[in-house]
TrEMBL record:
PROSITE patterns: DAP_EPIMERASE. SUPFAM superfamilies: Diaminopimelate epimerase-like (SSF54506). It is an enzyme of class 5 (isomerase). Belongs to the diaminopimelate epimerase family. It is found in: Plastid, Chloroplast. The lineage of its organism: Eukaryota, Viridiplantae, Streptophyta, Embryophyta, Tracheophyta. The keyword Amino-acid biosynthesis applies. NCBIfam families: DapF. Pathway: Amino-acid biosynthesis; L-lysine biosynthesis via DAP pathway; DL-2,6-diaminopimelate from LL-2,6-diaminopimelate: step 1/1. It catalyses: (2S,6S)-2,6-diaminopimelate = meso-2,6-diaminopimelate. This is diaminopimelate epimerase. It comes from the Eukaryota.
């Protein structure tokens, strides 16, 4: 089966610059650079084998949104974004309240060897109950989470791309975790009002018994024979935050074998809806370091809701102040849990990677 693909990259991107050694042909009628790959001479023994011709396009005069406006039947146009390395395929789904692709297809597209590669697929959908837009997301394993913090920042930047908006912008977004309000600020970062944390054990949900006003704060959790001290928080999706094992004072997160321990937390019987797990190292009362195992995605470079949850947990355990920088493998986020309104505010980047299209 032959496969066709088109990728559009900003001219300023490293990928565009890397094409400088390749013979490029300027096609004025399309306002693009087109790279025509040379068909190699091969001796093919398999009669079903077909060579693939691929083009890479870098926009010259046309805007990224015009690429996404294309309406060829049978093709899915998308944009690839990342928030601190937590990467997503963004799809314009404003004309329908149902996702354009199935969760099974989303799982295929997220595969980093046989697909586009991503931690999830996000759909920009029509608003509900007076909101500007609705957001749905499929994880890389095909499951559907309630919300994604890095994803909502990418969502906001993608909407600005679709609507050709510039400067400071704010949107109301309906999600499975409730109303979320991201704002693109003057420096291009996105600040998100993530709402109030959920702390009641049964609402997170966790089967761990509440030990402080029905909150689960620094409780003991047996994971494969090791006792961990955990605090549980929901940001509309469940999180289990740990700073230490029993008898230790502070994790050294770089030493963790995350691929081994992460799934044991995610599928632990104490978490009926599974859980995201944040492993946190305290550097100071305003500076934390985290590695994360995400429910449905595994080890990722960043998790926005998890970063919010860990600051709440750090405050509840008396380890940190309400305004913290959190270092993640993909970079830092700034998190503030405001006492006056009990809301959590997350500020961080969201970056476009490329636009693309593929058959569906």
């Amino acid at each position: 089966m032959a496969i066709a693909a088109t990728i559009s990259l900003p001219l300023t991107s490293p990928s565009r610059r890397s094409l400088s050694s390749v013979n490029l042909v300027r096609t004025h009628s399309f306002s693009t650079f087109q790279l025509n790959l040379i068909r190699p001479k091969l001796t093919v023994k398999n009669p079903n084998f077909r060579l693939v011709r691929m083009s890479i396009e870098a926009p010259v005069q046309s805007s990224p949104s015009s690429f996404l406006d294309r309406k060829e039947s049978g093709f899915l146009h998308f944009a690839k974004y990342h928030g601190l390395g937590n990467d997503f395929i963004l799809i314009d789904n404003r004309d329908s309240s149902e996702p354009r692709i199935t969760s099974e297809r989303a799982e295929q597209l997220c595969d980093r060897n046989f697909g586009i590669g991503a931690d999830g697929v996000i759909f920009v959908m029509p608003g509900i109950n007076g909101t500007d837009y609705s957001m749905r997301i499929f994880n890389s394993d095909g499951s559907e989470p309630e919300m994604c913090g890095n994803g909502i920042r990418c969502f906001a930047k993608f909407v600005a791309q679709l609507e050709s908006l510039h400067g400071r912008q704010s949107f109301t977004i309906h999600t499975g975790a409730g109303l979320i309000v991201p704002e693109i600020v003057d420096d291009g970062n996105v600040r998100v009002d993530m709402g109030e944390p959920i702390l009641k054990a049964s609402d997170i949900p966790t089967r761990l018994p509440g030990n402080k006003d029905n909150y689960v704060v620094k409780s003991e959790l047996d994971v494969d024979g090791v006792i961990w001290n955990v605090t549980c928080v929901s940001m509309g999706n469940p999180h289990c935050v740990t700073f230490s094992t029993k008898g230790s004072q502070n994790l050294q997160v770089d030493e963790l074998k995350l691929d081994e321990i992460g799934p044991k937390f995610e599928h632990h019987e104490m978490f009926p809806a599974r859980t995201n797990t944040e492993f946190v190292q305290v550097l100071s009362r305003s500076h934390l370091k985290m590695r994360v195992w995400e429910r449905g995605a595994g080890a990722t470079l960043a998790c926005g809701t998890g970063t919010c949850a860990l600051v709440v947990a750090a405050v509840l355990e008396g380890r940190a102040e309400r305004n913290c920088r959190v270092d993640l493998p993909g970079g830092p986020l700034q998190i503030e849990w405001r006492e006056e309104d009990n809301h959590i505010y997350m500020t961080g980047p969201a970056e476009a990677v490329f636009n693309g299209s593929l058959p569906i």
